[in-house]
């Protein structure tokens, strides 16, 4: 251990919800995207699931809203080391979309992509079983554009760069394929509890 | 099977620079050698990092401080120095109110102190000097852009490069003494005599975008989220393609 001279840090509050190397951002919700925030209205938003599925399908805003609503209340963790506790999102569980397209048995991974062109890769197992959502509400209000509105992917058990803003679709694959940040040195999976920040962690 | 899936969209900027995974995974000791005050709120911290693998202008690193009980605090910081500063790197840090890392640097740190760094990280915001660069920063958002300006200068590059830097007052302008004709400072609260006061506007961008270099500009925007939103919207309105704007937001 390399102790930094006279560094004490913030007072320690034991928080079992805080993954290693993270701090509590409190009320802040920093915006971290490398893209220009798109002007994307709900009327222009679509979400497609294709690739290794029996029935590729595209939903528009109204069609997606006919699916059963599902909420997430819990924590989110950014690789830049802030975490945010007790956030509330509402939208639809990704399980509902996947049930409609019927993934092939061979599908193991997905590339999530945005209306902007941003991509990120995920194991399919991280997107199923009630652990991922298409979210369009934050704290009871429409999701702000700078946070991915009108709708974003939400995969709160992974670092937040996996929760692609302005989500446009998922392509199911039988192999892993690095996305935008993953090609730029970030970890393929991004589990905050194992500090999978960068490739090689 | 090995082709990368490309979504049917506007923002198709590929990663610019392959990142060394080995360097990014390794924590190294950095020894503080010098502290230079830049403004009342910002200072530059120079470190010796003998095994530093090098970086490209615009890249950042992760810095870690460790307390006696094993508690650690880590933050991302942009690298201010040019790549040719062999075995040394410089960071310019704002003193953030209540900031546990910037607070240690501004109140405790002195030459000889050792911290840990890993990097360089992320090739997306990097600029190797190959394409005309239009740099737009505010506050400490100028830090990675200054690495680009220093690189351009030290290598004597002929690539067109312009810097628009926004600060509240002349006293808040980081690196004020180092700017040359490539730079236009913009003052939002108080300006030197004869210089207008006001935020970055279309008037600053129009001349640059109506008469761009051959093949156009690669735009790099860095600052607070509010500034990044403002500047990137101005760029798009002035005709800069969305796919050629790179943004680094200081949450």
Automatic annotation (TrEMBL), chain A:
SUPFAM superfamilies: Oxidoreductase molybdopterin-binding domain. It comes from Streptomyces antibioticus. The lineage of its organism: Bacteria, Bacillati, Actinomycetota, Actinomycetes, Kitasatosporales. CDD domains: arch_bact_SO_family_Moco. Residues 1-22 are annotated as: Disordered. This is Molybdopterin-binding protein. InterPro entries: OxRdtase_Mopterin-bd_dom, OxRdtase_Mopterin-bd_sf. Gene3D superfamilies: Oxidoreductase, molybdopterin-binding domain. Residues 37-181 form the Oxidoreductase molybdopterin-binding domain. Signal peptide: none annotated.
From TrEMBL, chain B:
Residues 25-127 form the FAD-binding FR-type domain. Gene3D superfamilies: Nucleotide-binding domain of ferredoxin-NADP reductase (FNR) module (3.40.50.80), Translation factors (2.40.30.10). GO terms for molecular function: 2 iron, 2 sulfur cluster binding; oxidoreductase activity. Keywords: 2Fe-2S, Iron, Iron-sulfur, Metal-binding. It comes from the Bacteria. Its cofactor is FAD. CDD domains: FNR_iron_sulfur_binding_3. PANTHER family: NADH OXIDOREDUCTASE HCR, PROTEIN RFBI. This is Oxidoreductase. It comes from Streptomyces antibioticus.
